[in-house]
Amino acid sequence: NASVQGNARIEGHAIVKGTATISGNAVVKGTAMVGSSAKVRENAVVDKSSRVFYSSDIHGQALVTGSAIVYSSAVYGSAVVKDLAWLDGAIVYGTAIIGGDAEDFDSISAGTYLQDYGLRKGDGLTVHPLNVDINPDIDEYVTAIPEHKASDILFQYYTGSDGQLILKSTKPAIVTFFNLSGLQVCRIYVSGTYTLPANQLGSRGIYLMNVRCGNGQQTYKVIE
Fold it and tell me: How many C-beta neighbours within 10 Å does residue 159 have?
């Protein structure tokens, strides 16, 4: 049976099963799952939606997080495995960070990798062009409401009778629309009132609308 020893903790909705052992000051939390004969010990943390199985040994100050999957691997030192990374039979230690959709690692001790091992051959670099996030920067989310009061905010929007999106700004603003895949579909300049035709965004659905003007920016979720 699985066992939790010492000061180790299981928090949130985490699951420990099989013959897994959690010991020392280790923490398994979030919706993480540790199973088979895996060990999480010392000061290691396994959290969020990550999975650790088979003969894996996570120890030291290591962190397994995000939706990472670790099978039959050792992760220790100050190493981090995160995002959608997949380890199978690997040894990750030292200060190495494995993330993105990285996989196919054997043994690595330094560097940040957000891609398969074969693309960089364990170069040890923490800064690399392949690690640059090309997705748009969506800074803040707010709950969309049909109309805002002009006395309260600078920017207003609402849906017209024919499905148009009517935008009003008391100062010049750049308004950029993204779909839910993060792709930019439209960018317009608004000063005063601007009517966006119903078909301007391509199809009806939910979009993220980022508004940038002189006093800052705001992102709204709108239904077009």
Answer: 16
The three-class DSSP label of residue 137 is coil
Global confidence as pTM: 0.62
**The two three-digit tokens of residue 25, written as one number:** 């000051």
Separate counts of helices (H) and strands (E) for the chain = 0, 24
Short-list 124, 89, 118, CA closest to 106: 89
Q: Tens of pLDDT along the chain (224 residues)?
A: 999 999 999 999 999 999 999 999 999 999 999 999 999 999 999 999 999 999 999 999 999 999 999 999 999 999 999 998 999 999 999 999 999 888 889 999 999 999 888 878 888 888 887 777 655 555 444 444 433 333 334 567 777 667 788 888 877 888 888 887 778 888 998 888 888 887 788 777 788 888 887 667 777 777 76
Specify whether the CB–CB gap between 68 and 81 falls below 8 A. yes
Query: Which is nearest to 75 in space by CA: 116, 26, 119?
Result: 26
Neighbours of 158 (CB within 10 A): 14
Residue 72 CA to its chain's centroid (Å): 25
Q: Is the CB of residue 197 less than 8 Å from the CB of residue 224?
A: no
Burial class (CB in 10 A: 0-12, 13-18, 19+), 11: exposed
